[in-house]
Design a protein that fits this description.
Blueprint lengths: L7 E10 L3 H10 L5 E4 L8 H4 L4 E2 L8 H11 L6 H21 L5 E2 L2 E2 L12 E2 L6 H14 L4 E4 L2 E9 L2 E9 L4 E12 L20 H9 L3 E2 L4 E8 L11 H5 L3 E3 L19 H14 L5 E4 L5 H7 L1 H9 L9 E10 L2 E3 L11 E3 L4 E2 L12 H19 L26 H15 L2 E2 L1 H20 L5 H22 L8 E2 L15 E2 L6
Bound molecules: flavin-adenine dinucleotide and succinic acid (SIN).
């Protein structure tokens, strides 16, 4: 009797996985239609959203326009964005941001006007920020406060999504592990919404927090959903270089406020790489940094803000200053060592423009989804925006179509249960090896031989991990990382060209034949 293996059956209308901007905002919207449960695998604040610095891009200035925001996004995306998705993002973005303001998010103002910042590849100042460089924290807090006050929304912390349950090709619920009670739970919901964020932890050097192990993508792939564009992983050009492997982000807005990049000889090298110098698209800056560092046999270059007003900088970037000071760096006096670090998963669970995945009743939004907005290289500060624009569209679609409320369901009799038996984590060392190998063979530069070797290694390790009897959530994350690593490297091997963040040293140019081709992987179809 399958029910005997599940400690508790929980019923709701909407099950949302993830407590970042995408999950919280979508929960707020869907709560007007029915009962919502948000689950999150750690404490509620743990998410990339919490650490977002630069801000959220939206056309809210008289001198700006949708057309310009659209052009900037398309240009940065390197001929690979879905134009309709971008149009939706830039046109609907301002209303969604105004909603955040109405619900209490306090962005920074200067003389009564929004203090808009500039970032790489933006032709206008259009990035709203909060508490200087703590934009994500402010947004997350205001959304969380709002939804936990709602009667029909529950937020379950320390609840780990293990796998989705699928019945007759439709989302049927989710198996989750309650880390507090050490119990297996079956959540049954009419709709599932994946808002599990990105996969930075798959790389040894990342700006992302520990929760970003790509679980949503791995889970959706195992369930049979389409996964798209995984070869495009954005490296942020300027993370603090830390030989001990604990980098943190130095926002692009620091360069937006006039910071210079210098090589070991003190030269401002970006002028030689792109006409927009330090504010060129991220993929260009990241590759230029690697090139300049290698020229001098180094692993980093320098970010120089010593020519800027110390008082202004400290007020504008309080968190970055605090963190640098903790590491003994006074940026007003000396240059900051910086190097690229894995930052953003551009691909993900394939969706249409209403967050619908290839599986009935399963939706995805935020970083875990791929609707084609970011093309081959995301424009800075478009990601927080994407979470709310497409979260809203999920709500719009479900509202328009009407939905049946959930009636008590039990664990379906004809579904398999995963192998159970809680064991001590065994895969910690493997986690580190995944990060090292992904950096080495599927990082900023890739080529056929390295990718093929990586794929063979990942396949072997995943097979061995699957044969381990019993699991715990730490090991399960490592299995998810192996799965996501495979999706990235298989996609990167298939795309025989260089475009945006995907650079193949054996195919160093963009190819017309690949312009409209997406790599879509699906387990059921054997890819
Ligand atoms: P997240 O905010 O990452 O939330 C994902 C949630 O899913 C988390 O709560 C996580 O615990 C949960 N979860 C994951 N797996 C499971 C599971 N198996 N079971 C249960 N729960 C699970 N973008 C911008 O637009 N502007 C910026 O200024 C900016 N700055 C950034 C700075 C940093 C340091 C980083 C790392 C990213 C930044 N980004 C920025 C990117 C942006 O923050 C993220 O893309 C965005 O916040 C993603 O939101 P999300 O809701 O999709 O995912
Ligand atoms: C940053 O502040 O540089 C990060 C912005 C982003 O990733 O969109």
């Amino acid at each position: 009797m399958k029910d005997d293996l599940v400690d508790e059956n929980i019923n709701t209308d909407f099950l949302i996985v993830g407590s970042g901007i995408a999950g919280l905002y979508t929960a707020m919207k869907l709560s007007t239609l029915g009962n919502v449960i948000v689950i999150t695998k750690g404490e509620k604040k743990e998410s990339s959203t919490q650490y977002a610095q630069g801000g959220i891009a939206a056309v809210l200035d008289k001198g700006d326009s949708w057309d310009l925001h659209m052009k900037d996004t398309l240009d940065a995306g390197d001929d690979f964005c879905d134009e309709e998705a971008v149009r939706t993002l830039v046109k609907e973005g301002p209303d969604r941001v105004k909603e955040l303001i109405e619900l209490g998010t306090r962005f920074d103002y200067i003389e009564g006007e929004l203090d808009l910042a500039k970032e790489g590849a933006h032709s206008r100042r259009r990035v709203l920020h909060a508490r200087g460089d703590a934009t994500g924290e402010e947004i997350r807090e205001s959304l969380t406060e709002h939804i936990i006050a709602l009667e029909n929304v529950e937020l379950h912390e320390r609840t780990f999504l293990v796998d989705l349950l699928v019945h007759e090709d439709s989302f049927a619920g989710a198996l989750c592990w309650d880390k507090n009670a050490s119990e297996l739970l079956f959540y049954h919901a009419v709709y599932g919404i994946l808002a599990t964020g990105g996969c930075g932890m798959v790389y040894e050097n990342t700006t992302n927090p520990e929760v970003t192990t790509g679980d949503g993508v791995a889970v959706a792939y195992r369930a049979g959903a389409n996964i798209r564009d995984m070869e495009f992983i954005q490296f942020h050009p300027t993370a603090l270089y830390d030989p001990k492997g604990d980098p943190f982000l130095i926002s692009e807005t620091v360069r937006g406020e006039g910071g210079f990049l210098r090589n070991e000889d003190g030269e401002r090298f970006m002028k030689d790489h792109h006409e927009d110098a330090e504010l060129a698209p991220r993929d260009v800056v990241a590759r230029a940094i690697i090139e300049e560092a290698e020229k001098f046999g180094k692993e980093h270059v320098w970010l120089d803000v010593t020519h800027l007003s110390p008082k202004y900088l400290e007020g504008r970037f309080p968190n970055i200053f605090k963190k640098l000071n903790e590491r003994g760096i006074d940026p007003t006096q000396r240059w900051i060592p910086v190097a690229p670090s894995a930052h953003y998963m551009i691909g993900g669970v394939e969706t249409d423009l209403y967050g619908q995945t290839s599986m009935n009743n399963l939706y995805a939004c935020g970083e875990t989804a791929c609707a084609g907005v970011h093309g081959a290289n995301r424009l800075a500060s478009n990601s927080l925006l994407e979470g709310i624009v497409f979260g809203h569209r999920i709500y719009e679609k479900i509202k328009r179509e009407g939905f049946k409320k959930n009636h008590d369901h039990r664990y379906p009799e004809d579904l398999d249960t995963p192998s159970l038996g809680i064991k001590e984590p065994k895969m910690e060392t493997l986690k580190k090896e995944v990060g090292d190998n992904m950096m080495r063979y599927a990082g900023i530069k890739r080529e056929r031989k390295g990718l093929s070797k990586l794929i063979r290694w990942l396949e072997r390790k995943l097979k061995a991990a699957e044969d381990v009897d019993g699991w715990n959530t730490d090991d399960h994350e490592v299995k998810n990382m192996l799965t996501v690593g495979l999706l990235i490297s298989r996609s990167a091997l298939l795309r025989e060209e260089s475009r945006g963040t995907h650079y193949r040293s054996d195919h160093p140019y963009k190819k017309e034949a690949w312009k409209n081709k997406h790599v879509v992987l699906n387990k059921e179809e054997g890819s």
